[in-house]
């Protein structure tokens, strides 16, 4: 079910839609990112495996060791598309806790099928609309425009491609890396990273995805 956009101003929606359509390669509308039930993660020595994707028990971001908070499957166009994990400074089991905890953070996901950047853009826009307040949306117009350029030169992500989205407080920036390679200019602002986190743990995200990432499953 799509969230009504009446609480967002028309210029605001047009600005953010146009930004993400750069990534979509001209897609005219976002499709709902509904999902089937998420697969259970399997603890293994040295981490967690989910649909063949291995998540290390911890990573280092900004000089700080971050434990794996949780992992889950995320779907686009009703098809399992990526395994997603969050690495946070301390264990968090709520949306506010995860977005509000101070320190470096990482969103790590790997695709489990070939994924077009058009479908990815539609899912991002749909989930951002559904899971942010009008104030949060408005505060991140410039950042959303920058987000549109992150994968703008790529038509698709291949199966097994992995993306790190890192928040580094020392620089107040979010960095995107594809298979270890920096793929865009850093994006400024802590509220932008919190908005990105809500793509996978927001209140209108499928419960199985949100609860898996928050370590509740």
Tally of helical segments: 7
How far apart lie the N and C ends? 24 Å
Structural class: alpha+beta
Tell me the Rg in angstroms.
Answer: 16 Å
Provide keyphrases for this structure:
217 residues; alpha+beta; Chalcone isomerase; eight-stranded antiparallel sheet; 7 helices; 13 strands; 31% helix; globular
Describe the structure in brief.
This protein has helices at residues 10-24, 95-100, 117-131, 134-139, 141-147, 190-201, 207-213; strands spanning 42-44, 47-50, 53-55, 58-61, 64-76, 79-87, 105-111, 115-116, 156-157, 162-168, 173-178, 181-182, 187-188. The strands form three sheets. Strands 4, 5, 6, 7, 10, 11, 12 and 13 form an eight-stranded antiparallel β-sheet that branches. The chain has a three-stranded antiparallel β-sheet with strand order 1-2-3, with no helix packed on it. A two-stranded antiparallel sheet has the order 8-9. It contains seven helices and 13 strands.
């Amino acid at each position: 079910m799509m969230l009504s956009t009446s609480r967002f101003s028309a210029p605001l929606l047009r600005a953010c839609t146009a930004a993400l359509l750069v990534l979509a390669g001209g897609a005219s509308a976002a499709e709902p990112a509904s999902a089937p039930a998420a697969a259970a993660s399997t603890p293994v020595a040295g981490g967690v495996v989910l649909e063949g994707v291995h998540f290390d028990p911890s990573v280092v971001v900004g000089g700080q060791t971050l434990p794996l908070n949780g992992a889950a499957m995320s779907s686009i166009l009703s098809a399992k598309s990526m395994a997603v994990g969050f690495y946070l400074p301390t264990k968090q089991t709520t949306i506010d806790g995860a977005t509000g905890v101070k320190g470096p953070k990482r969103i790590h996901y790997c695709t489990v099928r070939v994924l077009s950047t058009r479908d990815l853009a539609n899912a991002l826009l749909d989930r951002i609309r559904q899971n942010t307040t009008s104030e949060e949306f408005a505060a991140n117009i410039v950042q959303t425009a920058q987000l549109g350029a992150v994968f703008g030169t790529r038509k698709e992500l291949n199966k097994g491609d992995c993306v790190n989205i890192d928040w580094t407080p020392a620089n107040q920036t979010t960095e995107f890396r594809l298979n270890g390679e920096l793929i865009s200019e850093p994006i400024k602002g802590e509220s932008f990273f919190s908005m990105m986190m809500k793509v996978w743990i927001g209140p209108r995200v499928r419960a199985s995805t949100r609860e898996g990432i928050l370590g509740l499953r």
